[in-house]
Amino acid sequence: MVSVKISPAGKPLSLARGLPVTVEVKNNAKVSDLKAAIATKFPKLYVSRQRLVLKGERKSLDDDTLLKDAGVNDASELFVKDLGAQISWRTVFVVEYIGPLILHTIFYWFPQVFYGQPVQHSEVQKFAYALVMLHFLKRELETLFIHRFSHGTMPFVYIFRNSAHYHILAGLFLAIDLYRPGYSATSPSIKGTIYENTTFLWGCVAAWLFAEYSNFLTHLNLRSLRPEGGRKRAIPYGYGFDWVSLPNYYFEILGWAWFTVMTGSWASILFFIVGSGTMANWAVQKHRKYKKEFGSDYPRNRKIMIPLIF
């Protein structure tokens, strides 16, 4: 057995007023086992709320690391920080994507409430509504049945920040703009224009479907690389990954690009720009992690997110 002293990081913790304490775990224990032992003594300080740091270090210890590999031995001292109330990443994604589904449904079916008059939906409004609903239903199903998360939880307060992007930009702003009278079948801005041309609309839908299906295939590929409950990753290969490190982002952007072409909506343009910038930033960070984790084994000619360009 290994005896480890656990002390509060900074001021005393309200959920663990008995700190510091000595906790015993097996010699081959992982950091997660130590957290579980701490949670046994202080149930309100459950595993996902804990951040452990070895005395004299700044980096937090990863749950899957063996204590001996982290430099933790008998009589070591670790500091625990309360990360606050946690919520699962899966729940976060479900909440994020439910917002646009609800808002678009309300604005599409009850326009008189928001615009003060009924709206005879144009073809472009019908197509846009169908594509938005299909996209976010797909995201919800992927969240529930496809995605595997490297981190189980995040601080609860962050759900409001994360949800704002989808609820406001893809939900409220996009719905307000798409289903207004200016996009209706009787609007001079639509009548006689390309936005009521079914050949144009179906062409955009076909391109959008290609992007959505390609995005789905990359998610299936990523799922196959990580066993259930595990965090270990492998180098992804195959469709999309032979060109870039993050093809799921590329196809996501491509889908919204075609949606924007189809609608010409200012709100869609805004969501496309903000979303593309956000995903580009994430892509750069994940590309660097891939190269650092796999070193010389990682394909050198692979771009970050956009084939042949970036």
Describe the structure in your own words.
The chain has 310 residues and is α+β, with helices and mostly antiparallel strands. It is built from 8 helices and 6 strands; from the N terminus they run E-E-H-E-E-E-H-H-H-E-H-H-H-H. It has 2 domains: 2-84, Phosphatidylinositol 3-kinase Catalytic Subunit, Chain A, domain 1 (Ubiquitin-like (UB roll), Roll); 87-297, no CATH class. Helix content is 50%, strand content 9%. The strands form 2 sheets. It has a 4-stranded mixed β-sheet with strand order 2-1-4-3, covered by helices on one side. Strands 5-6 form a two-stranded antiparallel ribbon. Helix 2 runs antiparallel to helix 4 (123-145), helix 2 packs parallel to helix 5 and helix 4 (123-145) packs parallel to helix 6 (198-225). The mean pLDDT is 93.
Write the layout of secondary structure elements.
Layout lengths: L1 E7 L12 E5 L5 H11 L8 E5 L22 E6 L3 E3 H21 L1 H5 L7 H23 L7 E3 L2 H21 L19 H28 L21 H17 L2 H29 L16
Parallel strand pairs: 1-4
Antiparallel strand pairs: 1-2, 3-4, 5-6
Helix pairs in contact: 2-4, 2-5, 4-6, 5-8, 6-7, 7-8
Give the structure's gist in a few sentences.
This protein is of the alpha+beta class and 310 residues long.
